[in-house]
Amino acid sequence: MDPQNPSPLKTHLVSSTESPEFTHLISSLTRSTIIALDAEWKPLRSHHPTYPTVSLLQLACQLGHELDSVVVFLLDLASLPLPSIWELLRDAFVCPDVLKLGFRFKQDLIYLSSTFSSMGCDSGFDRVEPYLDITSIYQHLQQKPPGKKAPKETKSLATICKELLGISLSKELQCSDWSCRPLTEEQKTYAAMDAHCLLEIFNVFREKVIKEGILVHSSSEHHPPIVNLGLKQVLLEKFDICNKVVRMKFREAVDMVRATDVSNNTSAVEGTAIVTQPRNTEPMDEFLLKVARKYGEKILLGESDKKPKAAKRKGKRRSSVGYKYGQYDDDWKGPAPWDLTVGGDGHPKFLCDVMVEGLAKHLRCVGIDAASPYSKKPESRELIDHANREKRVLLTRDAKLLRYEYLIINQIYRVKSLLKNEQLLEVIETFQLKVSEDQLMSRCTRCNGRFIQKPLSTEEAVEAAKGFQRIPNCLFDKNLQFWQCMDCNQLYWEGTQYHNAVQKFIDVCKLNE
User: Fold this and answer.
1) Where are the beta strands (DSSP E) in 108-222?
2) How far apart are alpha carbons 114 and 129 in whole angstroms?
3) How far is CA 202 from CA 207, 330, 343, in A?
4) This prediction's pTM
5) 3-state helix/strand/coil string of 144-167
6) Burial of 394 from C-beta contacts in 10 A (0-12 / 13-18 / 19+)
7) Is the omega angle on the peptide bond into residue 455 within 30 degrees of 0, that is, cis?
8) Is residue 102 helix, strand or coil?
9) pLDDT tens for residues 213-263?
10) Distance from the CA of 89 to the CA of which of 81, 202, 372, 509 falls in 20 to 30 A?
């Protein structure tokens, strides 16, 4: 996908087994040799006695070798009768001719299995094979020096997409309420992209493997003469050939058994029609077969995965200052460090950690001073020192940071909302901030700097932008005024994006009421 001009995704919401979308899903599953899996659910509070209920299952089917042939299906599990699709999904999960892709999909499978089991679908799902995790693909794509192991750190899907595909995958809606119906268009797009990007990453992997010839072998290497092989190699070679025959015969047998069902390929269980259409899947091509053998794995769920682990009680441990971890009130008490009653200057100032970096940009858009950490991965003490030194309130969603509250009294606040607009309103209300239309877009959204008071002409802006920023030619005849950030020198002008942003924050902050 071109990060500058992404083509629209072919997305189908499946909410009924009688719909054309469901028929299209069955057809696509029979024609796909590689599918990407993902699931969404409403987040629960930690240590909840039950698993979350999965509300949406995403299946991205690649019907050819090009990304244009990808179709994404969003299975609305809150609307579909689960017993009617259980067998179809179970067969797809274990079909030997379909390579499954996922990003740490075991947790999704556990929740998915629990959801189906609660609706009477036997034991839910217990395996996915052959399976290839995107984290494994990412490790193989890394260029590491000879003799050195790849770093063990596990990166987020958004980070991997940024590095390999050059696209920004927003995770803002990950923790939204996926149980609410109807789903918003933003949720549908987010869910489809989460599955589609897995296929994009796999295709990057495919191109590298083909280019470097990692899986290419001569015909003599495939089937060497028996006389040149030892007993062990002969047995392995014969086992490989037999395995192919067994897999082919197994598919034929399954199709024959299903074909004997004379009840229009459905059976009734507790009044629900169960779809059991034969899955005449196309066999994997030689490349996918080699990939599955060399890099593939399987996800197996054991008995211990079927029940949520009981929360372990931590023993009471007192610190040297008498602070008990886990015992705090994260509601704001104040006063803030900028309050005039404590010697402040009356100007609100915040420090937003990486968990609320989107909130930082929103605060800047409404004219509020919101700094970012100096480094990308700051230590907790670095954040504390930064906030203390500049008399800022540290905004975060990390509850662990509240343990340092004794170091900077009234300078840490844990944001409770998940979405950026709601976070902005929460901070404005909590700290009783005054926002006016005149303040909108008065700070640099890139670095939090202030603008040069005198606006620049087009000629001055072109001269100031030389070497680091391009002014579009279409702006030259519009007689616009430009503003420049005093810190990073970024240039801004009152174009369409500016006016849209102003109107957005007027609506969000309800400034016209």
Assistant:
1) 127-133
2) 19
3) 9, 43, 57
4) 0.56
5) CCCCCCCCCCCCCHHHHHHHHCCC
6) buried
7) no
8) strand
9) 776 553 334 444 444 445 445 444 444 555 555 555 555 554 554 444 434
10) 202
